[in-house]
Design a protein that fits this description.
By secondary structure, the protein is mostly helical. Helices cover 60% and strands 0% of the residues.
């Protein structure tokens, strides 16, 4: 945090290096510090921590990427194709939290992901973004009765997302 608060861009290379530290607390603090710089050159490095073994590092990464806003979305869209379902899920969640409809077609395609938690994150993201281009993907998932870890079915999440879009009649 302190290096980021100072705002000296000379600290960025040191922080990028610290993102790879063996200690999770050091990685997390480096990621948090990078948030204040919003340096597009750090995005690739930050994205590598979406699958960090430490949950606090992953949370810090998500929060930092959200600060980048629409700048991060193209990078996150690429991560929707990652082999790790947790990375795909987090990427979809962050895109939804950013709320930009850039690349919504790629997000919508991911609504048919084989992993139920990825599908759930995509559906919620499509609802949050609120772009009607997400309706066809949501309409396809409305009959999916698969249960998610949250205790809701894909069908329930799809219905809620369609309602957010004002198109519950698509059900």
């Amino acid at each position: 945090g302190a290096l980021g608060e100072i705002g000296d861009t000379a600290a960025v290379p040191t922080l990028i290096h610290a993102v790879g530290d063996i200690q999770p607390e050091v990685r997390k603090e480096a990621i948090i510090a990078l948030k204040s710089f919003r340096d597009v050159n750090t995005l690739d490095r930050l994205l590598t921590t979406l699958d960090d073994e430490d949950v606090s590092v992953r949370k810090a990464t998500a929060q930092t990427l959200e600060v980048f806003g629409s700048t991060a979305v193209p990078y996150l869209l690429k991560k929707l194709r990652d082999q790790n379902p947790d990375v795909r899920r987090m990427s979809a969640t962050i895109i939804g939290n950013i709320g930009e409809s850039i690349g919504i077609h790629l997000l919508a395609e991911t609504a048919s992901d084989p992993d139920v938690e990825v599908r759930a994150a995509v559906i919620v993201a499509l609802g949050k973004i609120g772009d009607s281009k997400g309706v066809p993907a949501l309409s396809k998932t409305i009959k999916d009765l698969t249960m998610t870890k949250s205790g809701k079915t894909i069908q329930q999440l799809s219905g809620a997302a369609l309602k957010e879009l004002g198109t519950e009649d698509a059900i």
